[in-house]
Please model this.
Amino acid sequence: MAVKAIALDIDGTLTNDKKVITPRTREALLAAQRLGIRLILSSGRPVQGLRALAAKLDLQNNDGLLVAFNGAHVVDVQTDEVLFDQPMPEDALCALVEHMHTFDVIPWITEGRNLYVERGMRHVITYRSEPFDIVEYERKHCDLDLIEVDSLLEVCDRPQDKLLCASEPEYLQKHWRAMYEPFTAALSGMFTADFYFEFMAPGIDKGHALAGALPKLGIDASEVVAFGDGQNDISMITWAGLGVAMDNAIDETKAAADMVTASNNEDGIALALEKILG
Model:
């Protein structure tokens, strides 16, 4: 296939379990850009949480794109032009915030560099039998400033792309349907990690964002290779001309992919690109 763009999920795909891009994978992606191929970082993370990785891959000098908030927001790295944005309806978001108060979850909203959490809300979950400061984890890995507010409703009077809810994986598996059921017609909801369940505008996913942004740049789906590992990557993998699942991907993502490569800890992206690009 003639490849014009490579779309990459971040956590569990582009980065290894230590949250870094390995040298071999980085070089493979830099080499792809030297061939004129555009790189797209596509993640549930906010834009700010993608900028450091974009810089490591030199996207700012190679017409790279950032697909943030699971597809709700698409930005040209070089110009900062917003190519696509679809925030949540304000009435649905306000109702969702109130609804989340009835569950044992930690909700937050990220806007620009700010991570808004409610004052007095717990920050620690139990993960793999250990205490895990999930708020600090998000703040650190996305390079955000933590802002405490009395209620998230204080930031719901302006467009917001995502509400993230964190909790113990066992709790989310038990309660996500009750969390989501009143909003299935008004919002999109999905797992992006076993400790994250997230809400966006209706119809939002990574595939929808790419379908909306790339044709404007003269790139067809048949010219895109997409890599991912999670539930929120399936739409992107099935939309792209060639969808690649990591070996560490969930079974549902592997079933949707055209091929499976090695894991994120074994340079799966580099190995696949060596086969695809020659």
About this structure: The longest strand covers residues 106-111. The first helix runs from residue 23 to 34. DSSP finds nine helices and 16 strands in the chain. The two ends are 11 Å apart (CA to CA).
